[in-house]
């Protein structure tokens, strides 16, 4: 070993135990345990970690048969590994216990309850469980130390799972549940809950009611149910600040006193009933920030008197964009994805010349996040730059295949567009896509990391 390597090794070994524990707690538990083979000094260092992050979900669809064979041969080692990791853990307060097990690991299910019980005995604060299971030990739902809980349970033979009859989580502030059949069972069971994410499915026989006075952040994933558009999602959340709605819009929203609402995001892929779009937007007309994806509407938009930031993701036509601009007189920031400006010529001349009020007095920032440089994009930029009178910054994120650095003609064409605002600055950025993740598997015996 070189002297430089020895010095680095000495420097690491000289760090206080709590610092080393924090470093190892940032790693997946498997890697943290492997440091025990470095030297005698490191043999038991990992046992003081405060995070136990155990992920056994690695698989690739194109190699299902190979991976299934690989998984079946290692389940026993994996069970031994988790058993020993929990047994040797010296900390009395585990900050995070994360357990993710893929669909192939059916034999592991019988051990899950014991592992979760062990984590609860270690005064766990955050639980993140994604397993093949349709029930969990009662200790999860009566844990006095839990502040964050994420549950995603599934089983091939079951449509969903249910909360037990006994639930009380006095310190829980964040709850994320997937695949639960009775989410309303949490009412009154989490007295300090602030953040909630859950799936809801409505039918015409029973409305979905959510009554949580302490809630500040809410995400609802709407599943397609048997509703004919007459069902209701009733929200009694007087302190709510942010609302996210995703999925299939098939119910009315009833919200009592949403004056505290600051921002909302709607990403419903479709709705069988156009009037439900108008209904939910009317309920959200007081928000300051709004993000909408894949929105299809025929009804007039409400006025958003407090709107400061609007994000439109997906593909938007000229008429839809201008309707939103006309409905947001105080808008300052516009973030937009793809534009379809082909209907621009179809507008009546006097209609197309009307300039929304926000473009005359308030709109200072535009972010065009997915510019292809085609005719529609150029028409959009010509309209916005030529009419926004107080615009300060336009940032154009071009698709990677446009390669702004190698296509100065595109930049020059945009820079030649007349601007209504003399102080407008145009910035160009390349929007790079993340590289595809390669699948790798590691057939190392998990149990070998232990002496």
Written overview of the protein:
With 451 residues, the protein is an alpha/beta fold. It has a domain of 131 residues: Alpha-Beta Horseshoe (Leucine-rich repeat, LRR (right-handed beta-alpha superhelix)). The protein is 25% helix and 26% strand. The protein has twelve helices and 18 strands. The strands form two sheets. The chain has a 15-stranded parallel β-sheet. It has a three-stranded parallel β-sheet with strand order 7-9-11. Helix 5 runs parallel beside helix 6.
Q: Which of globular, elongated, flat, extended, rod-shaped describes the shape?
A: globular
The fold-level CATH name of the domain at 307-437 is Leucine-rich repeat, LRR (right-handed beta-alpha superhelix)
How much strand content do the residues show? Answer: 25-35%
* Biggest β-sheet: strands ordered side by side in the sheet: 1-2-3-4-5-6-8-10-12-13-14-15-16-17-18
Integer-rounded radius of gyration: 27 Å
- Determine and state the CATH class of the domain at 307-437: Alpha Beta
Summarize model confidence as the mean pLDDT: 81
Which bin fits the share of residues in helices?
A: 10-25%
Question: From the helix content, strand content and strand pairing, which structural class follows?
Answer: alpha/beta
Distance between the termini: 24 Å
List how many beta strands DSSP finds.
18
Task: Note the main sheet.
Answer: 15 strands, parallel
The appropriate CATH architecture of the domain at 307-437 is Alpha-Beta Horseshoe
Q: Which residues sit in consecutive blocks of at least 5 with pLDDT less than 50?
A: 1-8, 59-73, 436-449
Order of helices and strands: HHHEHHEHEEEEEEEEEEHEEHEHHEHEHE
- Provide a count of the helices: 12
């Amino acid at each position: 070993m070189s002297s430089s390597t020895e010095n680095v090794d000495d420097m690491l070994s000289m760090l206080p135990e709590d610092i080393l524990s924090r470093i190892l707690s940032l790693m997946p538990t498997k890697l943290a345990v492997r440091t025990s083979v470095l030297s005698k000094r490191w043999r038991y260092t990992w046992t003081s970690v405060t995070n136990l992050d155990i992920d056994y979900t690695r698989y690739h669809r194109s190699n299902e048969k190979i991976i299934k064979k690989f998984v079946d041969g290692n389940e026993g080692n994996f069970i031994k590994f988790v058993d020993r990791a929990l047994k040797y853990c010296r900390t009395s307060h585990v900050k995070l216990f994360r357990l993710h097990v893929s669909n192939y690991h059916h034999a592991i299910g019988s051990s899950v309850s014991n592992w979760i019980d062990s984590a609860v005995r270690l005064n766990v604060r955050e639980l993140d469980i994604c397993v093949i299971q349709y029930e969990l030990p009662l200790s999860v739902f009566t844990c006095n130390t839990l502040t964050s809980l994420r549950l995603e349970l599934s089983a091939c033979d079951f449509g969903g799972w249910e909360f037990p009859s006994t639930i009380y989580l006095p310190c829980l502030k964040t709850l994320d549940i997937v695949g639960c059949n009775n989410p309303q069972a949490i009412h009154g069971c989490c007295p300090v809950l602030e953040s909630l994410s859950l799936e809801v499915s409505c039918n015409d026989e029973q409305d979905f009611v959510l009554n949580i006075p302490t809630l500040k952040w809410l995400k609802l994933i709407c599943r397609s149910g048997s509703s004919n558009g007459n069902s209701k999602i009733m929200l009694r959340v007087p302190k709510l600040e942010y609302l996210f709605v995703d999925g299939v819009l098939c119910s009315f929203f009833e919200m009592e006193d949403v004056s505290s609402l600051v921002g909302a995001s709607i990403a419903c892929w479709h709705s069988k009933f156009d009037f439900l779009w108008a209904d939910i937007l009317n309920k959200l007309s007081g928000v300051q920030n709004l993000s909408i994806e894949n929105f299809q509407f025929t009804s007039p938009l409400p006025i958003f008197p407090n709107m400061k930031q609007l994000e439109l993701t997906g593909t938007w036509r000229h008429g839809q964009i201008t309707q939103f601009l006309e409905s947001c007189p105080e808008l300052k920031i516009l973030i937009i994805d793809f534009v379809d400006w082909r209907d621009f010529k179809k507008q009546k001349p006097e209609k197309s010349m009307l300039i929304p009020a926000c473009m005359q007095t308030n709109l200072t920032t535009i972010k065009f996040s997915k510019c292809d440089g085609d005719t529609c994009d150029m028409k959009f930029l010509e309209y916005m730059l030529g009419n926004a009178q107080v615009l300060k910054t336009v940032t154009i994120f071009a698709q990677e295949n446009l390669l702004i650095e190698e296509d100065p003609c595109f930049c020059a064409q945009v820079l030649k567009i007349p601007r209504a605002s003399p102080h407008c600055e145009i910035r160009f950025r390349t929007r790079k896509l993340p590289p595809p993740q390669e699948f790798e598997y590691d057939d190392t015996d998990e149990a070998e990391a232990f002496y």
